[in-house]
Every structure is written in C-alpha cells, then in structure tokens.
C-alpha cells in the first residue's frame, strides 16, 4: 500500500462518511465491462464541483490491491453485479492527482520527474528485484513488470488537464507532459500493461498535440456524455429524493440548480445541491470554488457577436454554437464559438446536443454571469436593458400596443443576432426583450409540450418581489394572431403549470406576422379560482 501505487480506500470512505452521499458506483459496471480491451482508455471530463475526485477515489477503492473494500461497497449499486467480487481489489492501481503533485514537485517543469521517481520507488517495493536501479521512465517500468510477471495496471489520473489549462503558454512543460502521456497510454506496449486507464479533468483531450498521441481514448464530455451521463452529476430523481428527505422545495431547487441537459438526463450541480440541502439557503454556491473572474477575460474577448450572445443567454435565450472548432486548450481560442464551447466545459453554460444550442442552465449560473458582465459595464448591456425596461413596464401596465411596438423595436435592432424566421427565433427575441425582468424574476420557464414546435414562457417573480410583480404566462404565435394565442393559453390551461403560485398572474399573447413584419399583443389578468 503506497501513496501512488495501490493506495488504500480512505479517500472514498471520507465521501461515504459525508452527510449526503449519492451512489454513483454503477459507473464501475461500465469500467468492468471494458477492462483489458481497446475501450479501456477513458477520458471523462466535467466541470469543477461535479464529483471528479470522488469518482477517481471510488475506482481506486474498488480496484486497488492495497485495501479490502468489500464491506464498503456491499450496500452500493455495483454490489448487485455478478462481476462485483471478480474485480474487487484485484489489480495494481496507480492513482495520480496532478493538481496535488504540483506542490511537492516544486514547479511544473519538475512534475514528470517527481511522479516518475516516486511511483517507480513504490513499484520497486511491490516488485523487488524486477526493476533495475537506473530505471527512470515510468512507462518503461510498467512494461518491464508486465513482461516479467504478466501483471497489468489500472492507471487513474485526476485533474489530468491542469498543465493544459494552467501552463498553456509553457511549450516545454506541455510537450514534456504530452510525451509522458503518450508513453503511458499510446502504442503496442501500453495495450499489454494497461488494464484500465481513467483520466478525469475539466477539458477533453487537447486536439492539436495529442490528437495522434491519445486518440485511443474514448471521450465522455459535457458536449457528449454518452452512456455515462447519469454519473456526471445528480439526476432529477436523485435530487427529488433529497428534497423530500431534507424538506426542501423541489421546484425551487430545480429553478436554482437544474439545467445541464446530458443525453436523457436533467443533471444538477452536486456541490450546490448538497449545500442547499444542508444549509437551506438558496444562493449561488459557485463562487465558493470558482470565481467569475476566471471567465471575465473570456467573455470580454473581441469576437463578433460574443457579448450579445452572452446577454441573450442571461436573458433565457439559447444560442447556436459550433463546438467543433475548439482545440481544448486556452491558447487556441479564436472565435465566439470557441469561447462558448470552453464555457460549456467549465460549466458556465449548458449544451443541447440535439440542437447544438448553448444556454445558461439555471439561476445560480445566471447570477454569476450577470456579475461578470456587470463588472465590466458593457455598453451592449445598457442598450438591451433600457429597451427591456420599457417593455416590462408596458407589460405590467397592460399596454398592449406599447408591448407590441417595443418587441418590434428589439426585433429590428437585434435581427442580425438572431435569424428571425420561425417560432423558435421569436422565443429568442422574447427572452432578450425581457432581459430587465431578470432582476425581479427567475430565469423564464420554457414549456415545449410538442418538442420545439412552439414556445411558451412562464416568468415567476423571486420571493422578495412576489407582492409587487405578477407571474407572467406568455404564448407566442407565428403568422397567426394574438387572439389564437390567448385562446390557447386559456383552453390548454397554461396557468395550471404554476397552480401552486398564489400571487397575481398576467396572460400575454404575442403574434408575429411575417408578411407585414408586425407584432400583435393581447394582455389580460388571470383570476385564480
């Protein structure tokens, strides 16, 4: 049992000892299914606060020969698998936390030599007489042990991308690190000594320099989580169960912390959910581990349409993004799409894989992005805000003509931002139009009962504004009429979506006539029976 080689299970035990632990051991069923195969090279990237280290510690506790973890896992999901005991604590495991290793290494330039020296020293204790005293290459040491004994290794690397992110400008450090990873995982020899390689970090594999070096890794990302989606964060069912257990309002939890759309799962930020369950305070917990200052340089880059896209998403709109141009590093950011893709990996934006759309996932992140934007006082934001305040006031005053005129003005001024040709784009304009409402209202709830064929919005005021601002239910129509939109709100009982809300409710029906390029609006108060 060593620090890097065959560690014990104490790190995972600490997670199990926490007041809240959600069982994600089902992931092990997947890793067991790919052991010693060409699919056994996994890079599972996700943002901070999404349980990367807990997962790495769980895999270590399960596979490492340095501990006996049968009792620890006996009540978890993986224990139900027929292969549970077959692989339990049966392998030589090397677990490296790159972030931690940087401190004892002294500086980034020393990292590879530090890891290699310490790991080889522990391997010599595990395999006395197998490694010569002059061996300095960790990949070579693993190859020699495999050739002599036939044993294979499970290598788990946490925060694999620290140097890619923090030492992006240091070409020598990057090159040395990439060569180290190439030696560890790429080629014929690694297929002999690697039973499983599991890398986790914020970024996927760097495309340019590691494309040929590490293209044997299966990538599971915030863009494409594949069949590991349910293990990235907390699922809706898991959060609903916690809300019942801790007597929290699930709908409020959802409004604050939901929004990451991963495959078929609505995924919540684990750290935030745990915090609100234990503390009962609905606020942004993001700044406790990641300051918005990290993204201020990103969102202020001088790329056409970037700032407007950020404002649109803060408003509740979705923005088309081409994620294929991003090179998975911070030096090759060359466009608006690169910035937005990086923000998806960082967790500041969510991603709709089916429609290639980026959006702000929840109230917590919206507050962080708003603070980041306001710290630089964008002129673009001031313009949006002024027009939006006029629209909100007109809506609250039930001035239908003024609402129609103001939406038309916003449509005309920002038509270059949004391709205005269908009902989806109409909903995007509406989200931007009501930007100023965001100081009084939560992010609008978008109801799409028939897929993406039409868009409804529900604006719920924050608790402190409930007595002064009504909830607003909006129905949009394209090339029809406002009467039809209002009739649909009433006939389909849209206000029932907020039947638990006890304040005033305004019903707003909006139609856009493509031929004469005019908007129509009807507004009426809704009486709760």
TrEMBL record:
Residues 19-208 form the AAA-ATPase-like domain. It comes from the Bacteria. This is AAA-ATPase-like domain-containing protein.
